[in-house]
């Protein structure tokens, strides 16, 4: 499934997704702004909460740099709403139940836990410039490192 890896300098694949509020957005709606697009496996798990709260805490800095954060996981709208409310997240979470966005970004991969193989999201982020080009890409990144690297890439 995840047969391609996106690299710095590649155009960010456009997509349409449902948000945590039930609206539909396209990545291209954000042209003229920078976007931190981050992928995480599941709402309200420890690493995912650490990553989300890190982006929450850095959000004022991110906004100052003409950027927004979009979080993507396979969870549905209700799960995203609870996660967002529980942790006071100021950014949009996107629903990727059929993992088409994760596949487009090459982060839907076979994983293994306790000897059991399954498919899921590899924690990652992509920083996309005002013109829709990838300027930072990190796959299989630790939650804290994801936030630091993504924010640093904004300059």
UniProtKB/TrEMBL annotation:
One of its GO terms (biological process) is cell redox homeostasis. It holds the Pfam family AhpC-TSA. Residues 6-155 form the Thioredoxin domain. It catalyses: a hydroperoxide + [thioredoxin]-dithiol = an alcohol + [thioredoxin]-disulfide + H2O. GO terms for cellular component: cytoplasm. Keywords: Antioxidant, Disulfide bond, Oxidoreductase, Peroxidase, Redox-active center. This is thioredoxin-dependent peroxiredoxin. It comes from Roseiflexus castenholzii (strain DSM 13941 / HLO8).
């Amino acid at each position: 499934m995840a047969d391609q890896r996106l690299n710095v300098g590649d155009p960010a694949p456009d997509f349409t997704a449902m948000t945590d509020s039930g609206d539909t957005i396209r990545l291209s709606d954000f042209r003229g702004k920078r976007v931190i697009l981050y992928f995480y496996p599941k709402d309200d798990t420890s690493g995912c909460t650490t990553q989300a709260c890190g982006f929450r805490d850095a959000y004022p800095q991110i906004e100052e740099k003409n950027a927004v954060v979009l979080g993507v996981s396979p969870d549905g709208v209700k799960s995203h709403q609870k996660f967002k409310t529980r942790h006071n997240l100021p950014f949009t979470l996107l629903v990727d139940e059929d993992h088409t966005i994760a596949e487009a970004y090459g982060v839907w991969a076979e994983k293994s836990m306790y000897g059991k193989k399954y498919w899921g999201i590899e924690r990652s982020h992509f920083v996309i410039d005002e013109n829709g080009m990838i300027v930072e890409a990190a796959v299989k990144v630790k939650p804290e490192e994801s936030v630091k690297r993504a924010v640093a890439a904004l300059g």
